Amino acid sequence: MPVPFPDVPSGQIEAANVSIAPDGTKYVVPSGMHERLCRAVVPDAGEQTLDPKTELALAGWTSLHTDGMIGRVYIDAPDEFDGTAIVKRFARSHDAESIVMARHPSGEMNRWDAPSTVSLSER
Predict the structure, then answer these.
(1) For residues 79 and 108, is the Cβ–Cβ distance under 8 A?
(2) Which letter does DSSP use for residue 7 in this model?
(3) Considering 61, 86, 95, 109, which has the largest number of Cβ atoms within 10 A of its Cβ?
């Protein structure tokens, strides 16, 4: 089944919810629609017991989202995700005051106080 959401326009990352496929393609995923994305791209997820963003991360997808209220960006990513530049761009585009990343399956958490301090190579 194809991805049921539009690609992020080239050079833009302003959407509040962006998911990055394992091949690097970025998609605009409306809030609350990660379940639909998960059903479309993770065929063996079945009756999920995990959060859809966790299921997506386990399948190689990265989900970036902002709460829009307190200036925080949240990221669910596979352990091997190394997209420092995209995380910084996304955080800057949403005036993030903090960034929190959960890696899957390790459960490792990373926190940064500003987009400029994000470094995914320091683990």
Answers:
(1) yes
(2) B
(3) 61
Q: According to DSSP H, which parts of the chain are helical?
A: 34-41, 52-58, 84-93
Q: Is residue 110 part of a domain?
A: yes
Structural domains counted in the chain? 1
Tens digit of each residue's pLDDT (9 = 90 or more) over 70-121: 889 999 999 999 999 999 999 999 999 999 999 999 999 999 999 999 998 7
Phi, psi of 122 (to 5 degrees): -95, 95
Please state the rounded mean pLDDT for residues 51-73. 90
For 37, the token pair is 């994305």
- Residue span of the structural domain in which 48 resides: 17-117
**12 in a structural domain:** no
At residue 86's C-alpha, the angle toward residues 54 and 8, to 5°, is: 80
In a domain, 10, yes or no: no
Whole-model pTM? 0.88
The set of residues, in sequence order, having a beta carbon less than 8 Å from that of 54 and lying 6+ positions away, is 76, 102, 104
